[in-house]
Amino acid sequence: MNSKKLRMLLIASIIVAATPTHQAAAQSNAGPERFDSENAVLDTSKPFAIGATEAEQAIRGAFGWPVFQEGIVAGAYFRFDPDGYARFGPSPRLDRDVWEVTCVARTVICAANKMGVEVALTDQGMMQMAISGLTVQDTFFLSDGTSELPLPPRVLEPLDDRLEALLISGGNLVVRRENETIHDISLNGLGAVVPYLRWVANKQDYSVLPVNWPIPNSGNQISKGLTQVADWNGNGAPPQNLQTSWAMRNQQNTAPSGGFDQQHQRGNQPVNVTIVPGLMGATQSMQQAGLGSTGSAGGNELNSEISRLEGQIAQLQQAFNKDAEVAGTNSVGQLQSSSNQMTPTPQATPSDAMGSDSLRPYLEEILVRLAWIQSVLQPIAHDHAQVSAAQSAAPHHSTSSSGVLQMASPGQLETMPSIALNQIAGLTAAPSPLEHSQNNALVPAMPSLQQSPVQASAGISPELEMEKALIERILLELDEGQSGNAPQAAELAPVVTPQIAGQAPQGEFKAITDFLNEAMSSGG
Amino acid sequence: MEPSRNNKSKKNRGAPFLATALFLVVGTAVLAGAVSLGDYAKHIFRNKEFETNPIIAGSEDDDLPMLMRGNLPTVTNSLSFGTKKRERVPRMCEMPKNYYEKNPWPEDLVVGYQRDNSYVRPYRPNRGFLTEREMAAARVAWHYFESFTQENTGLANSVGNYPSTTLWDTASYISGLVAAYELCIIEKPEFDKRAYALLTTFKTLKLFRREMPNKVYQTKTGEQVDYTNKPGEVGYSALDIGRFMVWMRILKNRYPYLGNTIDSVLLRWDYSRIFDADGLMYGARIDKETNETLYDQEGRLGYEEYAAKGFALWGFQPRLAHRAEPFLMASIFGIQVPYDGRDPRVFHSQNYVVTESYLLDGLELNFDLPHDDTSPDWVHSDGWRAEFADRIYQVQENRYLRTGFMTARSEHNVKGPPYFTYDTIFSDGYPWNTVTPRGDYAPDHAAIASKAALGIWSLWKTDYSGLLFDAIIDLYNPESGMYEGLYEGGQGRVEIYTANNNGIILGSLLHKVQGKILTPYNGPTEVWYTAFRDRDIRLVRNLPDPPQREDWLPALRHSTQLELDY
Asked: pTM score, two decimals?
């Protein structure tokens, strides 16, 4: 009963997320209305990267975009229209392995899709993936064709810089269900798609592009004959470099709040709604209502709120478990599954949700508090991400007794929504079965990474080996961040350190001075 | 001595008289001879001048007043050879029940090119009364126009309730209108009301820079708009105008009482830039930098010849546009498929091979030359067009036979991005290439186009076309019209409704009943040819004179494919 109510709460939030505003946007996006000049949110004369050019297309019918931009960047060919619709692929024909980007009409809220995988940005500009048709049993791997790297289930949550860097480095995203591969999707081109999403979301502001991005010099790099700002007839402001932050963008965004998934619709496909933006929307509402403070929130206030929340969660957990026993089902896993998917699969009807009167006020209060905590944690998590990025840039590692590299300060990098959902499900104190399975799956799923460096390097180039080791290290750090405490070295799978072909295995490593000293002494 | 002196003096007195008289006689004779000789010479020179410099109509030496040249008869097959014009087939509800028994399709035809380069196809069309199933589809297709025609302007929306249209799509609306009347779905009052509403709107439409109709118009207001349906201008399309002129000719020939209205619409336009000296067609667009009008050659193999014939029906001479050259062949499933030889990398214009351009030529013009008003349906005087069309059909049937994919490819709208695709048989070097206007490969949007399927069914009576018919004929929404098509990849219907699709479907059904949709012109001379004869407007706008035999487009043939090519 209670599990049903919980699920219904999630569904109710989904229904709330599917606002009339969204429906109106979807309708205006469904036909030739898409080509209304108000939908032109991009200036196709402004190059996304050096070498991109604006081109004209011959239109046979009564409507369409007469211009578009095409080019190549980060190994991906691309074309995009003034409404943000874009395609990225490895060949100029854009005929295979293509990411298709569509935007909510008249907004810069876009998402990229490829074979059931959807990539979008959160309100904070973080990359987030969604994969259709997932269940709690599904596991994720990053494959480079020769080996596979297990990915944590929170790959479906907003990604921090390192996990994003890992995914956009290429390879294939493999999703398995009971050893059966249900998705094997190339991530090639994502390195261009995600910057494009950010560039569009920031109204073609070059400052949001990666550091090494081939940004054209202003003015002189723009090819002659391109649309000039004076000719801009889109609804939005003329293209210009806007020094906006993500927070500023959220305020400036003309789209209704609630994040991408509430508003975005691809063609005639069903609306893809997630709980995450709903929570974010609640956060914003609270901020607007003055119910919570963000930057000024002190740690004590936060801790006391968390304590109160934990108490409530414990009560809820008791009721929940009691109900689960009665029902004879393990709904925790199902709820966890929903929390890990951008596209939850509702298993109850709205009429069921109407019956959750007894728990509804209680849960609503929890959600409000969670939203407030999220708003408080957000800058903290952001700061932590920056610290982590700085640490990545200037490694500050200590070596454990087993030689495993550990981060000096493995803080919790989880984003607020996932924390909130984990707490609702009573998962804060004890890792969920899913997490256990994921962590346990780390070891057997990495045969190629567990073999000796000599074996590993037998068929793999040193560069690939090094890249693999780096990825391994990033993943390890991520796991540490997720578990909350630095794992004991003995519990971890062996980690391959960067090896050059012909180098001694890790256990046999000696400094060259030691080697020379030993040789001298033995020789003497 | 004296008498002799007297005699001598008498003789001397008579000599001057004689000399004078002689001089006068000789002088008169010489003068008369000179005059006669001059007259004779003058006569000779005059006659010689006529022999060496024949007067050309429209030249300075033309004795025939310009005013009168419009009265020259338009020379067609029937006038030139004294043969009988084709008879107009009555409306379906007025046809005798034994019409098709009395007018059977010949059984013993010799297929292939004939001596006059006309062509007899190995296929026959579907012919006969519409069945109930076909009539249901026709009514639904017409319902599109009932639902999406604007009361104020008489213009029909191109796509559903989106209020904009092109001349191409308006021609499709006229196709639907004529078919609805001829198939007895509507009666004459409704037909006339719609026809006059449309034509009078066209009479007042603002032209693109006082030349030709803009590419796009807002259907509610009749305003010039751009591709985003905002007031503005984008240029004009020679292909769209060419198709529109085909249907203006069909309308005028079938319903002569509309003739003056139609002529007045077309006489407003300025045709001075739409052809070059070689008879190539040019469209217009706007230079973004300078805002000047740019004229680009328009049309590729298939569409180009069809639109060219639309202009030729009104006396223009698009000689080069009507020729197949330059073209190449791509061997697909054993069929050598012709495609335009102009390299897209050089000319920046794609060479799409689709069914539609050939279908329209077959349905509306029977693959005939513009001056042909006599040949029966089984003879196609524009022979190579019919022969090429057979290849377009056969390669699609072969694809079905080899792969199982039912194939009837055309350009069509799709719901959602990219909203429009060229679903081609061949383009950009690839067979079965489905591409967006900006060049993206979009195989997910490959579909059996409804208009192509029913057009094929109408023109090629085969088992395969019957399969296409079954796939499409019930694919409709009674409230909105026929669906655009059926996705090849199993995604179901292309759930979008367009004027072009529904208009061509109605035209295909009309073709089943009546055959060639264009009928001969039976009136005397036309205002189109006689107007503005007292002013220079005809010269300024490049309005043509009635075509004579030397103005006819040539009947040509190309090599035929005798066996499959793998």
From this structure: 0.67
